[in-house]
Design a protein that fits this description.
Elements (H helix, E strand, L loop, with lengths): L2 H11 L19 H46 L2 H42 L11 H13 L1
Length: 147
């Protein structure tokens, strides 16, 4: 269609030539402030719990290391097989605690990934409506493309 044809159709249908720009950007879903606050508190609690659990595990590893050093001294002095067995069992337990620290990191990372997915899911906007003609929409899109 040519511009003349568009002008004739505008006259016929009583459409005024206006330069009104219609904003069709999606509107962010409106979440109640209380819900946002609750989500923030849950995230803060998760971080606090993670930091607390991590600190406790580190403390346990340090204490176990001290105990292992003392047990190793006793085993070396006594040369008793049972003393060495206790040291090896203590070392295994300390290694298990270190593995738990790694598991804790993995779990926290999984929680963060899950939170990102939830946030992405909550930002989906459906049923966007524009009032205006398709010509106006095309012109607006062309202007946006040129910018």
């Amino acid at each position: 269609m040519t511009k003349e044809t568009n002008k004739e159709l505008d006259k016929e249908f009583g459409i005024t030539d206006s330069e009104e720009v219609v904003d069709i950007t999606p509107i962010e879903s409106k979440i109640e402030p209380e819900k946002k606050k609750k989500v923030r508190e849950e995230v803060d609690d998760k971080k606090k719990d993670y930091q607390y659990a991590r600190a406790q595990l580190y403390d346990i590893v340090e204490k176990m290391q001290e105990s292992l050093n003392d047990a190793m001294d006793v085993a070396a002095e006594s040369q008793h097989p049972r003393a060495f067995e206790v040291v090896f069992n203590g070392a295994k337990n300390a290694a298990d605690v270190v593995d738990k620290i790694g598991d804790l990191h993995k779990k926290m990372k999984d929680l963060e990934i899950e939170e990102v997915k939830v946030q992405q899911h909550n930002t989906t906007t459906n049923n966007i409506m524009m009032t205006g003609s398709t010509a106006e929409l095309i012109n607006m899109l062309k202007e946006q493309k040129n910018k």
